[in-house]
Amino acid sequence: MDLLGISLALFGAALATALAGIGSAIGIQVAGTSAAGVMTEDPDKFASCLILQALPGTQGIYGLLITFFVLNKLGLLGGGGAVAINWNQGLQIFAACMPVALVGWISAIHQGKTSAASIQMIAKKPEAMGKAIILPAMVETYAVLALLTSILMLMGVQV
Amino acid sequence: MSYVYAVSRLRGMENHFLDASFFARLIDSPTLEDALKSLSETSYSRWLGGADGAFDRAIDEEMIDVCKELSQFVPDQELITIFKMPHDFHNVKVLLKSLFRVRGGDLEGRRHELLSRLGSIPLEELITALESEEYAFLPWNLGDIIKRCWLLWEQAKNPQHVELLLDHHLFASMLKLAESLDVPAVVAWVRNKIDAENLRSLVRLQRMNYTAMDGEPFFHFGGNLRPDDVARLLNEPVETWGNLLSHTDIGSAFEAMGDRSDLRAALSDVSRALDEHLIRVLESSKYATDAPEYILLFLLNKEAEAQALRIALVSVANDLDREFTRRLLSHVR
């Protein structure tokens, strides 16, 4: 068995979850800090703040999804034994993980900042909740595009 | 605590600001009792009670409480200190003038009722320091300046010289503190504050027919405008000041003056325009989620609210012309 191939693939899968997860954690922290500030003055805004705080968390889920895809492709789920892949196939899987890992990491941080701004917006104008959700959701678009790219690339890799 | 938290919390606190419609209702109150009833529905209610005239104390208490609350979550306390510094210097002036009177033989000369509790130095400690001449714990090199104030007083017995020395030191200390904070907007605000003070002095000195040469010592260093340039305006006709200052941002405040020849009336308009300009300097932080200068902007807006409230209540208490009061408070948003 070519261990370099499977190592590269697993490294890519690990980065997909790790980088996107780190980004989400930072994004949620920024939005959560803002939510705590607003809720100190107005605890009734908990529901609105929670929705906005949760938005940067999706990138971490996308990263996990891609990791499952990779593990499934490698036959590491279900106990059936690993599929043999060469270093070239391993590198392809590694590359396929990168869109969700990198875009997920960066976009989650920026989505967190946008969510923080939206939370500050509903602190003053609670009636603008709809608009407040749309603004950070625009950042989400690029995380979704990265997820689709990673899925399509993974589907294209022959093992 | 982070600035994201602080700014978010302040945006929540801003919802308790009194708005233009409240002030309109307050001014239209037939009696002070009715006005205080309206005020009792606001955050000021905690401090109301006692005699009708106690509203002044309630306004002070609210301001002190807001500063205390902010100090619990603002990451850099110096931002609050920079706001409080003028109150500390005001207290030093009051205490020094009291001591000048007492040591001059007027044993009833202490005017401690004029002291502001909004300063950053605890009042009791400040009083003890000045009375006992133990200045070691005083910040911003105040001890040395107070010693110089005593020398000046002994030489000329002119309280104006003492005030001027303290004002020069106040602005120099504010600028030094702002520069140490490394927040460009706060430095810009202090520089504009110095300019604003110089321009207020300019109008006052013009009223007293000072020339550029006599007036120059009254202007402070550290602003965007050089003191000698401001002093030179004293030799120019008032109508040309707007044009001469048009290349500066702060010069727009003189548009409020127009071609009015009544300098006393113009001073209040210019003064208000300068206050608004100072708030505008910091308003760039209005849309930032984590701008440190937002703390200062919040405090200035709260101070403006307190000032407007005081004007409105004094007007109602003394049954002044409501239209005049409305004009005075036309800037309230």
Could you characterize what this model shows?
The complex is a heterodimer of chains A (159) and B (333). With 159 residues, chain A is mostly helical. Chain A has one domain (3-156): Up-down Bundle (Four Helix Bundle (Hemerythrin (Met), subunit A)), CATH 1.20.120. Helix content of chain A is 82%, strand content 0%. Chain A is built from 5 helices and no strands. In chain A, α1 (3-41) packs antiparallel against α2, α3 packs antiparallel against α4 and α3 runs parallel beside α5 (129-156). The longest helix of chain A has 39 residues, at 3-41. Helix content of chain B is 63%, strand content 0%. Chain B has 3 domains: 1-75 and 292-333, ATP synthase (C/AC39) subunit, domain 3 (Topoisomerase I, Chain A, domain 4); 84-182, no CATH class; 183-288. Chain B contains 15 helices and no strands. Chain B starts with a helix and ends in a 5-residue tail after the last helix. In chain B, α7 runs antiparallel to α8. The A-B interface holds A 30, 33-42, 113, 116-117, 119-120, 123-124 and B 2, 4-15, 73, 287, 289-290.
Task: Tell me the fraction of residues in β-strands of chain B, as a range.
Answer: under 5%
Unreliable spans of chain A are: none
Alpha-carbon Rg of chain B, integer: 21 Å
Gross CATH architecture of the largest domain in chain B: Orthogonal Bundle
How far the N terminus sits from the C terminus of chain B, by CA atoms, comes to 30 Å
Multimer state: heterodimer
State the helical fraction of chain B: 55-70%
Shape of chain A: elongated
Which structural class should the secondary elements of chain A be placed in? mainly alpha
Order of helices and strands of chain B, N to C?
HHHHHHHHHHHHHHH
The coarse silhouette of chain B is globular
Number of domains of chain B: 3
The number of helical runs of chain B is 15
Question: Biggest sheet of chain A, in brief?
Answer: none
List the main descriptive attributes of the protein structure presented here:
heterodimer, A: 159 residues, mainly alpha, Four Helix Bundle (Hemerythrin (Met), subunit A), 0% strand, elongated, B: 333 residues, Topoisomerase I, Chain A, domain 4, 3 domains, 15 helices
